[in-house]
Amino acid sequence: QSGLTQPASVSGSPGQSITISCTGTSNDVGHYSFVSWYQQVEGNAPKVVIYEVSHRPSGVSDRFSGSKSGNTASLTISGLQAEDEAYYYCMSYTSSTIPKALGTGTKVIVL
Amino acid sequence: EVQLLESGGGLVHPGGSLRLSCGVSGFTFSSYAMSWFRQAPGQGLEWVSTVSATATSPYYAASVRGRFTSSRDNSMNRLYLQLNSLRVEDTAMYYCARDCRTGSSRYPIDYWGQGTLVTVSP
Fold it and tell me: Which among A46, A77, B3, B59 is most buried, taking Cβ atoms within 10 Å?
């Protein structure tokens, strides 16, 4: 499977900012501007929080922001809140044999 | 409003079969590639299969290739996943999901269903 690499966990205190990285290759993150980020709260389906690298869907807090540099995309959560504790996944358009490039997932822990 | 609703999950013995279904509404189903993902208890998301808008040559993860079959009925706005030769390790919540753009099967997902639980147990 074409996997994008994410850290297993990232933690921060309420009010702090954290950044989650998503590292791919020139076949996916490095070449295309279609990178999405998903939040998955325990027991629920994933929900898009960022699409096309840096765009926020309607209804998503502006504390969530996205960016990309080279083969690495990043999700930043500013003003961390208890409700942000969840798993986060990235996904990118890919030209690889497998049609979905999915991140390994990151658990965000609010201390 | 885009909606995806999975059904067909349940408890099955190893070696058994199930057919999952995903009914959709709120968009032109026949224009979008659709995918199945799964999530085993306590584990991360795993891509399972993708079907193009025209249902030609579905893609499969190595872990399910030869056992699972994806199909779609564009006239009924339904996506299917036939699960055969089920194993204990296939136990998971199965989600159907829509690509965010038309014209390719390789875009990220923008909408997810709520999932249907498949439990494979002796």
Answer: A46
